[in-house]
Amino acid sequence: MGSINRRQAIGAGLAAVAAWPLLARAGEAPGAPTFALGVASGCPRPDSVVLWTRLIFPEAPSDPFSFAPVVEAPRGPVEIDWVIALDRELTRIVQSGRYETVGDFAHSAHIEVTGLEAGMTYYYRFATATVASAVGRTRTAPPAGSMEPVTFAYASCQHFEQGFYAAYRDMAGRDLDFVLHLGDYIYESSSGAGRVRSHDGPIPTTLGEFRARHATYKSDANLQSAHAAFAWLLIWDDHEVVNNYYSDAAPTAPQAEAFLARRRAAYQAWYEHMPVPPHIEPGFDNLTIRDYYSFGSLLDLALLDARQYRTHVAQSLAEAADPDRTMLGPDQEEWLARRLSVAQARWTMIAQPTLLSERVSGSGKEADILDGWDGYQAARRRLLGMVDAAGVSNPVFVGGDVHTFYAAELPRDFLEPAPGNLAVEFTVGSITSNGPSAKATAAALAGNSHIKFAEGQQHGYAIARVSATRLETQFLAVSDRADPDATTFNLASFAVADGEPALITTGPHTS
Ligand SMILES: [Fe+2]
């Protein structure tokens, strides 16, 4: 490495502190790794967060975003120093350390910092011997018992080719406690006509190709700024591996052995690029991403995996009604039932990738109907029944996947409807990915009385503001996903009152 020692590198980085967010300085030594994919934090607990980055070895030192090499040459370990502080100038340091990144994990860093103070904002940065990263900001979860309001953004479906990430620039400028991503963080396939930018390379099937695809997405400055600004929680959907996959196969990859090798590569690349703790890494044949977070006594948040353990897709709606079919798998169902049975918070949010509501018309292609909860009707009945039986306070479902903003009131059982609601559901539209036709969305709204709002032509994200008395959700749409400088507007907003699982419209339904 170069002649600049780490202390000098950090000092030089401090001299550049001027505005938020800071940009990483370009690599100073030719061929030396850089922090070109940015920094991230995640998994906020009252006493811990995970810090993430990944070193990139530029092929051409003048072009830090040259990710073209799909097969990277083996490279040795590279040490990075990390620091976490109470101020963005990183002078009030609370902890620091050294981490050895290795080629086996794409020189990614997953540092679980413990012993932090609850409900506190922190700033962090990484440095190699030659270069410092951008400064990231993060926040721990509130202390046990807290009823302080919590505000977070949630998002899904960010096809790189189908739009720019103006939504993330907007998000990065807000005051949020965390960000929740509900899946389709990357897409494996190119969308062809009408794209505003292009993926590099083919549909990924190998580890190198999945790493390159994640790097392409993470090269986006707006996505980087949203990661740098907040702690993220993430679940995945199908496109992190391949469209409409189910446990050990997919419609386009029916051979389990070959598919599982591809899934292993996809899971490893997902781990390498997400701010998740190092202990979830068990070899990548399986990866446990379900988790449970508490934000004081105000909000409990369950994160579900609806891909890894599901029954194979049904061939017809008659088959979809088979009571043995599972979306979450028996272990995850048991885990969730146990968690819900001891849930104490005022609001109980269950995050899963897709639309939970029944959608008996206007849902488009049959393959997509059968891929969603409508293809797993008994599993949906069990999930709703579990929430009902646990008697949790104020159940709220959130999802994505369908590239449509939906707001719905859920009955206790779609198969035997009875008066009264069990829960509300908010489904966030896509950050950029193509939505259904206006006709299909209108039919979904008209044909399903529990769905109160539907908009599939707009793209953006959602913000939830949770307090002791109300949960408010705002759907924010970007003015034009093809415009990198697009602004956002309020598409619709709703409130839910404590104890009343019903939607109160509070903002315009403009489109
Ligand atoms: Fe999607």
TrEMBL record:
InterPro entries: Metallo-depent_PP-like, PhoD-like_MPP, PhoD-like_sf, PhoD_N, Phospholipid_Metab_Enz. It holds the Pfam family PhoD_N. This is Alkaline phosphatase.
